Amino acid sequence: MYMKCGSVEDGSRVFRNMIERDGVSFNAMIVGYAQNGQGTEALQLFKEMLDSGEKPDHVTMIGVLCACSHAGLVEEGLQYFDSMSKRYGLKPQKDHYTCMVDLLGRAGRLVEAKNLILSMPIPPDSVVWGSLLAACKVHRDIDLGNFVAEKLLEIDPANSGPYVLLSNMYAELGRWRDVTRVRKLMKQRSVVKQPGCSWIEVGSQMNIFMVKDTRHSKKREIFTIENTH
């Protein structure tokens, strides 16, 4: 609970005060450290887990790979990923591949990330490809970005996300003709960008409204409250 709330020190104190620690408690701490950006601490605890005789499971390795990603430990991450099946008898699952794509993507090793996805024994989903597309945007690899966007659209043709991200990538590079081309393609394929959505409580009632939506029956009250913040 503490780790999920970001209270790393409190979580660590409770863990250290435990009389007996099992795989579940080790996993909670390793994943918690990783999610809170403390990759080094997560890997140190993983070593401690192994020294205690506890065997890692799939959850453990998600935490370990995530820790390597946040700490920028690419080679270590590759070694841990390889050790899953060879050393611990664990078959990598979709989440482990996603962690590895994130790890390689952060490091700019985009081709390796793409090849890893293509080698997956299970069909990659939009989360895996989406992680690589985000990395393509960060590293401005528009060619690979195009390839990944097409893969995403094969999975979900009506999803506006890949189009929008690709359009933004072109815009950052000043390639306005390509921006126009992508937007025309969206129109041709009848893909609609979902508008932003927000909500506010007025008189104990929750009111939901869209960006640039002025049709709400209580728009005056909503705008009045918004303008006072």
UniProtKB/TrEMBL annotation:
The cross-references to Pfam families, in alphabetical order and at most eight, read:
E_motif, PPR, PPR_2
| Record carries keyword Repeat | yes
Query: What's the name of the protein?
Result: Pentatricopeptide repeat-containing protein
Give the UniProt record's GO annotations in the biological process aspect.
RNA modification
* InterPro entries registered for this protein in UniProt: E_motif, PPR_At4g14850-like_plant, PPR_rpt, TPR-like_helical_dom_sf
Each PPR repeat occupies one of these ranges, namely 22-56
Q: Which UniProt keywords apply?
A: Repeat
Top-rank taxon? Eukaryota
Q: A Gene Ontology molecular-function term?
A: RNA binding
